[in-house]
# Entry
Amino acid sequence: MATLRSWREIPHGGVAFRLSTDVKTGDWRALRPVIDQSKCTKCMICWLFCPDMSIIWDGEKVFVNYDYCKGCGICAHECPVKAITMVPEVRE
Amino acid sequence: MPREGDNNGSRGEGVGMSRLQLIPKYPREKQVMMNLNGDEAIAYAAKQSYVDVVAAYPITPQTIIVEKYSEFVANGEVHTEFVPVESEHSAMSACVGAAAAGARAFTATSSQGLALMVEILYIASGLRLPIVLAVVNRALSAPINIHNDHSDAYLMRDSGWIMLFAENVQEAYDTTIQAFKIAEHPEVQLPASVHIDGFFLSHTLENIYTLPDEAVYEFLGGPRKIPKVRVDYFDEEVDYALNPARPLSFGSLALYDYYFEMKIPQLIAINKALDVIKQVNEEWYELTGRRYGNGLVDPYMVEDADIVLVAMGSGAGTIRSVVKKYRERGLKIGLLRVRSYRPFPHSDIRNLLRNTKLVAVMDRAIGPGQYGALYLDIASTLYHERSKPILVDYVYGLGGRDLSPDMVSAMINQLVKDLERGYIPEEERLRFLGVRG
# Structure
C-alpha cells in the first residue's frame, strides 16, 4: 500500500482515485478453491456462477484468480464433476 | 406589496453595505408582478432556474411546489425530467443520481418527509452534489401536526447542507434562484436548502416581482457547470460526473484510513459559502434592486440597540413591525434576522451584537433537554466576547401557534424589566411564549 494521502490530495467529492482492481480483495479468503485439472470438463459452470469474476479461461484450462477470489465456495458447490475442492488457507 | 414592518428587501444596513441608491439592471418596471403563494413562487423560481431533474413526492404543506412543477412539465413549458418517486428517501436518492450524472436537480419536502430524507442528505453533501431542496418547515409528530415550526429543519442541521431561511414570499422566490448559484459555485459545490414557514408563507398569497426567464438564465450562467476531477487512472482531468466512457466510482468506501481526510474539503467548502452567499446577495441586488442584509444576516435597527431580538423565518416580519413601534417610543431595540443558518455567520453576528446589553433569541423549535438550537449558536458566538450581553431563549410558535404583535410586545416589556434588573436567573433563561400556563 502506498503512503496515505493528505486531504489536499483527495479528489473532489472523494471520488475513487485509484482503480478498484488495485485493491486485492482476495486477501480475506479463509478457504481456497483448488481445481483438479484431471477431473475438469471445462463446462464453465463455475465461471458462470462466480460472483467476483475470479474464474479465468486462458483458452486451454480453467483456473482461479486468487487476487480477487474471496473463497465463497459457490464454484465448488456448483461443479457437476466435483473437480473443485475448498482447501483451508494456511499462513506460510 | 410591502406591508408595514415587512422586509422590503432593499436594506443592507449595519453590515457594511452601501446605502447609495443603485439602478438595478432589471428595475421594477422591467420585472413581472405575479400573485403567488410561497410554494408557487418556489416552483416558479425552480422553473426559471432551468432545472434538469425534479423528483417529486407530496407532503403538506410542500405539495403545491411539486404539483405546480408537474403542471409546467405537462404543459411542455420546461425540459425537466419529472420523476414521481415512491418516498422522500427515493426523492433525494433520485436527485443524488441525477446530480452525479451532471444534472441540475431539485426537490421539495416538509417535516416527516425531511425526516425520511435525512439519510440521503448526508450523501448529497458528502458527494458534493449541488442539489437544491425546498423545505417548507412543519412541526414533527407526535402529536401529528401539519403547521409550521422549525423542528424539522434542525434534523438537517449537521448534514452538511447550506440552509437559508426566507422571511416572505418574495424572498422565497429570490432565495431559490440564488441557492442554485451558491450551491454550484466552483468553490462551494454543496447542496443548499431554502426554508419557508409552512402555511404562513407556503399558502399565503403575496404580490411579488419576478424576473424574465432570460434574466434568471443569465444570472445562473445557463445550465449547471460540472467541476473537473483528477484521478490516477486518467491522464487528464475529467468531468466529475457519471459517464460510461470515463467511469468513476462515486461514494466509495473510506474507513479510518480516509474518511477523516474526505470530510475536510467539505468543511472548507461550506465555510467558503459564507463569502459566496454575500457575493450572490450583492449580484442579486445589482440585478433586481433587492437584497437581504448582507445575505447572511438581515439586521434591523441593531447598530445602537440595547435589546436585540434574534429570529429566523416569517416571524421576523411580525417582530420587526413591533420593534418599529417601540423604536418610535424611544426604546433602543432591534431585530437580527438570521438568513443563513448553515454556514452560521459567527463573525457578522458577533460584530452586530458586540455592544448589545440584552439578546433574546427566538426559537421556533424546542431542543428537549437543552435550550433551543438557535440560542446555542448565538451563545457560542458571544462566548468569546469580553462583555457578554444577557442572553435569554424564547421558544414560540410550536405547531403553527401564531406569533401575534401583542405577544411580542409582552415579551419586550418583560425584557425591559430584565434589563433594569440586570440579570436573568438561570431558571428563567428558557421561556415559552404563547403557551397556556
Summary: The CA atoms of residues 76 and 82 of chain A lie 7 Å apart.
